[in-house]
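Please describe the entry underneath.
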Amino acid sequence: MTHILMIEDDPDFSVFLGDYLARYNMKITNYQDPFLGLSAGIEKYDILILDLTLPDMDGLDVCKEVSSKYDIPIIISSARSDVTDKVMGLQVGADYYLPKPYDPKEMYAVIQSLLRRNKKLTVPQESSDFSYDIASHKILFKSQELELTQGEYELLLALLQAKGSVLSREQIVHACESLTDSYSKSIDVMIGRIRHKLCEPSRHPRYLHSIRGLGYKLTP
């Protein structure tokens, strides 16, 4: 899971964005107070989303403080669209400036780009038969690249990122752009094809399990 620190004084907006990013196994922890955000253990997070208009402290000062002490990608998310703010933000350490309003899909794309640049989307799993690299769009099984369709790749990646947790059909649909209907047989067909590529039986699977009434999970 990708852990995102957000410092944003609009709680409704942080919830809206958090609900969207949760579909992609990303969790937002938001602080409206910038001083609380600065003391939240920044090193625990993978990325920072920062508003500029904050109570008691300007977001540019927060950006400068964070960039001088921590190695974390910073996205400024602000309704302040003046070019001076953009230039200042990038000069004091921001990696990207995304003016509000924006589609949450755009924020997701920016996050992916920055994490890929910082190599945090490459996740080797030494204790697992699986490894994956989102940057190169590959999933390896026992050190061999699996030949997957786009839908199979998205589904298997979602299960891998869940780290053994059960994903409902609805959660799978949210995580897979190739799927639109949780009642569709497409999920079951893809699960069957993935099992075939893993060379495991459907009755006694080693990796890919169907949990009756709940969904699916992968045991790496």
